[in-house]
């Protein structure tokens, strides 16, 4: 077997990544910016923390929707129609 030599990522590739989605009408752009905390003003740090919290709440909300859909599908498959005369 041939071993492939690992290619070293460039700095730009570590910062920006495009996840191409062939099965979707969109691609996902990931952007990583490392900024030393000591360079950020306190107000900016507060905004960043609030933004992270909002992203987590958004994720939680999406998970809740997915769980409700799964539970709805599971409940629908267990439903049995009984005719009463």
Question: How would you characterize the overall build of this protein?
Answer:
The protein has 85 residues and is mainly α. The protein has a domain at 37-77. The chain has 2 helices and 2 strands; from the N terminus they run αββα. Strands 1-2 form a two-stranded antiparallel ribbon. Strand 1 and strand 2 form a beta hairpin. The chain starts with 10 loop residues before the first helix and ends in a 7-residue tail after the last helix. The model has no long low-confidence stretch (mean pLDDT 83).
Radius of gyration: 23 Å
Number of strands: 2
- Global shape: flat
Runs in which pLDDT lies below 50 for 5 or more consecutive residues are none
Number of H/I helices: 2
Question: Termini separation (Å)?
Answer: 72 Å
Give average pLDDT, whole number: 83
- What fraction of residues sit in β-strands? 5-15%
List keywords for this structure.
single chain; mainly alpha; two-stranded antiparallel sheet; 49% helix; 85 residues
Produce a short descriptive summary.
This protein has a domain of 41 residues.
Please describe the topology of this protein.
Blueprint: H1 11-15, E1 16-19, E2 28-31, H2 42-78
């Amino acid at each position: 077997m041939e071993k492939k030599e690992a290619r070293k990522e460039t700095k730009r590739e570590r910062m920006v990544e495009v996840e191409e989605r062939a099965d979707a009408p969109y691609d996902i752009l990931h952007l990583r910016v490392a900024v030393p905390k000591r360079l950020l003003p306190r107000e900016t740090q507060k905004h960043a923390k609030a933004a992270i919290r909002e992203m987590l709440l958004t994720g939680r909300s999406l998970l809740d929707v997915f769980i409700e859909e799964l539970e709805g599908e599971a409940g629908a498959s267990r439903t049995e129609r009984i005719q009463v005369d």
